[in-house]
Specification:
Largest sheet: 5 strands, antiparallel
Strand content: 25-35%
Number of domains: 4
Enzyme class: transferase
Shape: extended
InterPro entries: HATPase_C_sf (IPR036890), HATPase_dom (IPR003594), His_kinase_dom (IPR005467), HisK_dim/P_dom (IPR003661), HisK_dim/P_sf (IPR036097), PAS (IPR000014), PAS-assoc_C (IPR000700), PAS-like_dom_sf (IPR035965)
CATH topology of the largest domain: Heat Shock Protein 90
Number of helices: 15
CATH architecture of the largest domain: 2-Layer Sandwich
Helix content: 40-55%
Bound molecules: adenosine-5'-diphosphate
Oligomer: single chain
Number of strands: 17
CATH superfamily of the largest domain: Histidine kinase-like ATPase, C-terminal domain
EC number: 2.7.13.3
Protein name: histidine kinase
Catalytic activity: ATP + protein L-histidine = ADP + protein N-phospho-L-histidine
């Protein structure tokens, strides 16, 4: 007990030491009534109030009268409680009533029992008056540098949405004449083409929250070219008050049409290949049955041919399914069934195809789901065959099935194999996403199985994911909503 108390005190002391060492940052706390409760020396330096001059006073005096009238302090507290933090980037007022641009974050503060007791504010002075001139110069230089280095359609705007600069391809994309729009308001350079109500609606929260890192797609009417879709990528270049940000545009219209054509092509080609392939497959099987008296070289050749035909036919099936998914033509046929029994059946038939691994199944239970049984079965087989394929030096695969608190049946398949390097994990559910590791090791595969599995699971209201450590193994899991019997 004493030990615990001692270490608690150490922690508080350490926290205070850190807070005190932050000379560039004002760190202070306020209680729920906005009264300042602690004040570090960084805050003394920035706001010019000594700790004993401000502790106990209302923290609103640090805001401008305009912000107080607009209820900014209470809005910040509300946002911070709702989201765990709020961005606090605005003008603040020092003891001598001069203003500076403070940039920081507000966190809610809880006591040991988890009761909300106030807020912590961390803030830096990002604009001393003498800095403003330099900032402005840097800002202009940066804008020019960007425009001269990029060829993509980019426009650079300031906080008033005045166009500071733009690349020639931006002018081209929107059929504008560059001379006519520099220095004008972004929304007023329409010429009919940048009249994008959707862009306006999407841009407003970006400006309000200072979050310049999420791209979004908008459709608009180009006067000559009809309906176009563009991906808009905002980036902040310079922080407020000399805010400068860029919008990069990527025209997706032609790409989308090409993608659609490609999907139609894949789907037709796969269909056409499937028919002759099934004939070859049937003859291959006949040949395999007649191999008893054949020379070893003939035997080997026929087995190799059949192995490759099987690979090709599963590739074609997967390609057909993926193109059905992207064109929205995959039709699921849901029914109510026991997921545990389906898994037991899948494992039984899977074991007929392999002897290298032992698949450990939990005791069978009743977990009823309403889903497409055949497609769900293919998800299970895919996870199982990956677990075996990617763990050549181990012999065990564990399956776990459980009902979760949010009314889902969750299935996990664990292996002790090669694992997936962290930097490659993001591409696994993408089409043809295979890790370099399996390509180096020449483990065969199409890179389509997990993509399909993910789409099938998501279409059925489920979730899919994995955890993995390189050289230790992976656990892939998916969940489906449990079937709830309608009340009689
Ligand atoms: P395939 O196995 O045909 O390549 P999948 O879509 O099923 O295609 O899997 C995509 C990729 O994910 C694999 O190529 C492999 O790199 C990785 N992967 C999948 N399952 C595992 C696993 N259990 N262990 C390690 N890597 C895996």
């Amino acid at each position: 007990m004493d030990q615990k108390r001692a270490s608690g005190t150490d922690q508080t002391e350490r926290y205070q030491l850190i807070v005190e060492s932050l000379k560039e940052y004002a760190v202070f706390t306020i209680d729920k009534d906005s009264l300042v409760t602690t004040w570090n020396s960084g805050a003394e330096g920035i706001f010019l109030y000594k700790s004993d001059e401000i502790v106990g006073r209302n923290g609103d005096i640090l805001y401008t009268p305009e912000d107080i009238a607009a209820m900014v302090p209470s809005r910040e507290m509300k946002d911070s409680l709702a989201d765990g933090k709020a961005i606090n980037e605005r003008f603040h007022v020092k003891k001598d009533r001069s203003r500076f641009w403070g940039s920081g974050i507000v966190f809610p503060l809880y006591d040991k029992q988890g009761q909300h007791i106030g807020f912590t504010k961390i803030m830096r002075n990002t604009s001393d008056a003498e800095q403003a001139e330099t900032n402005l110069r840097e800002e202009k230089a940066l804008a020019e540098l960007l425009i001269s280095t990029y060829s993509e359609p980019i426009v650079i705007l300031n906080s008033k949405l005045t166009v500071m600069n733009a690349t020639p391809s931006f002018a081209q994309l929107f059929s504008l004449n560059k001379q006519t729009f520099i220095g004008k308001n972004f929304y007023q350079i329409t010429n009919g083409s940048i009249n994008m109500p959707q862009l306006r609606t999407r841009l407003e929260p970006v400006l309000k929250t200072n979050n310049y890192y999420t791209s979004f797609e908008v459709d608009y009417e180009h006067p000559q070219r009809g309906t176009r879709s563009v991906l808009v990528k905002p980036r902040r270049i310079y922080q407020p008050p000399n805010l400068l940000f860029s919008l990069e545009f990527e025209d997706l219209t032609d790409n989308k049409a090409v993608m659609e054509e490609k999907d139609i092509f894949i789907s037709i080609a796969s269909h056409e290949i499937r028919t002759p392939l099934s004939v070859i497959k049937a003859y291959g099987q006949i040949l395999e049955r007649e191999l008893n008296n054949a020379k070893p070289i003939v035997k080997r050749a026929v087995l190799k041919i059949n192995e490759q035909i099987n690979f090709m036919s599963s590739l074609i099936t997967a390609l057909l399914d993926t193109s059905k998914i992207t064109t929205g033509k995959l039709i699921l046929e849901p029914e109510v069934f026991n997921l545990c029994s389906l898994i037991a059946e899948q494992v039984e038939s899977f074991n007929l195809t392999q002897t290298s691994h032992q698949v450990h199944l939990p005791k069978e239970a009743d977990l009823m789901v309403y889903a497409d049984k055949v497609r769900t079965g293919s998800v299970i087989t895919n996870l199982l065959s990956n677990a075996v394929k990617y763990s050549p030096n181990s012999h065990d695969v564990n399956i776990n099935i459980e009902a979760t608190a949010d009314h889902r049946a969750k299935v996990s398949v664990q292996d002790f194999g090669i694992g997936i390097p962290v930097h490659e994990q993001a591409k696994l559910f993408q089409r043809f996403g295979r890790t370099d590791l399996v390509k180096q090791k020449r483990i065969p595969g199409t890179g389509l199985g997990l993509h399909l599995a993910a789409e099938i699971v998501k279409l059925q209201g489920g979730e899919i994911g994995f955890t993995s450590a390189e050289s230790e193994g992976s656990t892939f899991y998916f969940s489906l909503p449990l079937y709830e019997r309608p009340d009689e």
